Amino acid sequence: MGLKGGPTQDEVMAVSLAKLGIRPGDRVVDVGCGTGKVAIAASRLAERVYAIDRRAEAIAYARAQAAAAGVSNVEFFEGDAVEILPDLGPLDAAFVGGSRRLPEVLDLLAGTVQGRIVVNAVMIETLHSAVATMQRLGIFVEAVHLQVSRSADIAGGTMFKPVNPVYIIVGGAGCS
Amino acid sequence: MGLKGGPTQDEVMAVSLAKLGIRPGDRVVDVGCGTGKVAIAASRLAERVYAIDRRAEAIAYARAQAAAAGVSNVEFFEGDAVEILPDLGPLDAAFVGGSRRLPEVLDLLAGTVQGRIVVNAVMIETLHSAVATMQRLGIFVEAVHLQVSRSADIAGGTMFKPVNPVYIIVGGAGCS
Amino acid sequence: MGLKGGPTQDEVMAVSLAKLGIRPGDRVVDVGCGTGKVAIAASRLAERVYAIDRRAEAIAYARAQAAAAGVSNVEFFEGDAVEILPDLGPLDAAFVGGSRRLPEVLDLLAGTVQGRIVVNAVMIETLHSAVATMQRLGIFVEAVHLQVSRSADIAGGTMFKPVNPVYIIVGGAGCS
Amino acid sequence: MGLKGGPTQDEVMAVSLAKLGIRPGDRVVDVGCGTGKVAIAASRLAERVYAIDRRAEAIAYARAQAAAAGVSNVEFFEGDAVEILPDLGPLDAAFVGGSRRLPEVLDLLAGTVQGRIVVNAVMIETLHSAVATMQRLGIFVEAVHLQVSRSADIAGGTMFKPVNPVYIIVGGAGCS
Q1: Closest-CA residue in chain B for D145?
Q2: What is the CATH number of the domain that holds C142?
Q3: What's the CA gap between D6 and D23, in Å, rounded?
Q4: Cβ(C59)–Cβ(C75) under 8 Å?
Q5: Domain presence at residue C2
Q6: Nearest-by-CA chain C residue for A124
Q7: Can you say whether residue D21 is alpha, beta or left, with left for phi > 0 and alpha for psi between -120 and 50 degrees?
Q8: Which DSSP helix (H) or strand (E) runs through A59?
Q9: Contact at 8 Å (CB) between B3 and B61?
Q10: Do A144 and D158 make contact, defined as CB atoms within 8 angstroms?
Q11: Among residues C78, C87, C80, which one has the least CA distance to residue C102?
């Protein structure tokens, strides 16, 4: 969840991108792009990625990451997604890593996204809000709870250290 | 486990004690007692608890905890469980929080414990060793993987923070 | 969750009872007692248990289970917990396995329970409602997500089969 | 895994493919390809995929799936991977969905795979064997425990139903 929570974990990003189902030629938005990690990964699958964050430091960091990765098809927007989304035109997929105005963002995305909308949530309030809003909009597909643990060496053996569980909420027009 | 890994988590202890099925009058051993947390909890259900740890600092700490809790039916043994177990006589239940010589400990326990034997493991090597040894001894009942996450407040909401997953391996004579 | 969902899993019950912290002499209520499994287990720790369920078949089943277990300190009530709770007098602990009127039940329990209130939830709407209501009442202590997997034999080896994850929400006056 | 256990779950496949890190031009092997699901997905990222399974019915099924998907860069081999692998020449990545001779397969792969080797395991014996063999070969990178739960509608709400947890074991020459 943005700079505050650090970058999206690799496994969570892999599942989120798979749920998005980005195809060549797609125009994708990343709402609350944080470090830009998901936007940069999506840019390798999509035609164009729009990355939005209301925090100047996030946009600066993400832009630098994209430049370092040699990525040129990500366009960055500093500001409120609710104000920026209406200007982006039709979209094929949307990833929401974080937003203070999630219901309004989902309202807007439901009207312009042709394919999948994927929300990452760590808070149960966000999970509840995302599911309830998608159900109200008639676009709810599924929610997935992902609990990843990674091996770590300890004295003489291997244990598993868990990372914070994430809810991946999937919506989309015409999906079942 | 033990002092190194901190005390057994409340939820893991609750499930482990439930699997042990201690009854009034029971004589119970705690192998690798660490902080003494499980031994002290078991002492409220059992007639007598024998708590073994090879580390002097663990025994000193656990003994002080038992005294502070007003518990008088736990007997402490500093040393190697493989050498101490043969002197304890018949037992009704055994908890193994940790041991460097797990197969030998299980061999001994299989011969003297009437009821359940419960092993806590965080390492996959310990899990594998406990299951394989119990299967060889014909006393394997089940293994449970317990993943606990606890709520934590973050900005404006509630998230879940996972604690390290634990394997609870259960054996017992005449169990199915 | 009652007869519909089958009895509470052993591990979930063990953790729920540990969170309840029942002591000898306690008067405990079980709201939505279903098969009576938790009420019967609680009756071995408490002075008296009041088990409520709005379904006649649940009460009949639970009463038969209690009789078969030789338990005589559980009192059964068929009906709506919101109407029955005010007549029970002061309580020491409360377990809520299920309720269609959870906020009202928690309102009532917050006024009469001296110790812990523990709710089991499988639905995210129930989780959200329980946490939000407890926070509003100022009695929220913690929520725990419990993911249990049990070993199962398959061709030549041992795998883990997960059981449905459960949220255990804990509240209580004067708790921290 | 394979036909017996049904196709690899979407989320497990997404994480496994991300760990494989397949790049355009890569030559990839899928040992124990089962339904062919992973081989077909990998074929969209790789130059060429070699899919091996000792079961004639798996190869027939996977070949039909590949044809139906319009995939032409997957080559199928019915037989024992230990005998087939030496003839495939140098490889860039390897996915092992299942094998009765895992240590020998990993021995062979360690000598011919330039990039990542990813094993999926549901049995703890397979987990243990994969980690121990990779450690012996000096190619162990990490193991990940993936616990996925998916939302399901029940009376008036949304709950999570868990799918069987999977271990994803990652190895690779020159990886850290």
Answers
A1: B165
A2: 3.40.50.150
A3: 27
A4: no
A5: no
A6: C128
A7: left
A8: helix A56-68
A9: yes
A10: no
A11: C80
CA B5 from chain center: how many Å? 13
Structure tokens, D55:
């079961």
Residues in chain D with CB shorter than 8 Å from the CB of B124 are 124, 127-128, 131, 143
d(CA D14, CA A99): 25
This prediction's pTM: 0.92
**Within a domain: residue B136?**
yes
A152 in reach of chain B (CB within 8 A): no
* Residues 66-105 in D contacting B (C-alpha not used; CB under 8 Å): none
Backbone φ and ψ of C45, nearest 5°: -105, -25
Distance (Å) of CA B70 to CA B56, B58, C35 = 21, 18, 37
pLDDT digits (tens, 9 = 90+) for C111-140: 999 999 999 999 988 999 999 999 999 999
Q: DSSP assignment, residue A14?
A: H
Share of chain A above pLDDT 70, in %: 95
Domain contains C3: no
Residues of C in contact with B17 (CB under 8 A): 14
Q: Identify whether the C-beta of residue A150 lies closer than 8 Å to the C-beta of residue D142.
A: yes
Alpha-carbon distance of C39 to C71, in angstroms, equals: 10
Q: Which domain holds residue D127?
A: 10-172
Q: Which residues pair with B50 in a beta bridge?
A: B29, B75
Chain position carrying tokens 């079942």: A176
Q: Write out the H or E segment, with its range, that includes residue A150.
A: strand A140-154
Q: Is A123 on the interface with B (CB under 8 A)?
A: yes
Where do runs of H (alpha helix) occur along chain C?
Answer: 10-20, 37-43, 56-68, 81-84, 102-112, 124-137
Give the position of tokens 């770590």: A152
**Contact in structure between A175 and A139 (CB atoms under 8 Å):** yes
The one-letter amino acid at A80: D
Q: Average pLDDT of A59-68?
A: 97
Strand partners, A171: A117, A140
Cβ contacts (< 8 Å) between B14 and chain C: which residues?
14-15, 17-18
For residue C45, what are its two tokens? 């720790």
Question: Amino acid letter at D169?
Answer: I
> Distance between the two ends of chain B, CA-based, in angstroms?
28
List, run by run, the mean pLDDT of 10-residue segments along chain D (176 residues). Answer: 70 97 97 96 97 96 97 97 96 93 96 96 92 96 96 89 96 65
Partner-chain residue, chosen from C14, C18, C151, that has the shortest CB–CB distance to B142: C151
Tell me the average pLDDT across A16-35: 96
Cβ contacts below 8 Å, chain A against chain B, sum to 59
Q: Which residue of D has its CA nearest to B167?
A: D124
Please give the structure tokens belonging to residue C36. 């009576």
- For chain A, what is the radius of gyration of the CA atoms? 16
Residue window 125-144, chain B: list those with CB within 8 Å of chain C: 131, 142-144
List, for residues A118-161, the tens digit of each pLDDT value.
999 999 889 999 999 999 999 999 999 999 999 998 877 899 99
Q: Could you tell me if D30 and D22 are in contact, meaning their C-beta atoms sit under 8 angstroms apart?
A: no
Q: How many domains does chain A have?
A: 1
Average pLDDT score over chain A: 93
Q: Which chains form contacts with chain A, at 3 or more CB pairs under 8 Å? A: B, C, D
User: Which segments of chain D does DSSP mark as H helices, in order?
Assistant: 2-5, 10-20, 37-43, 56-68, 81-84, 102-112, 124-137
C51 lies in some domain: yes
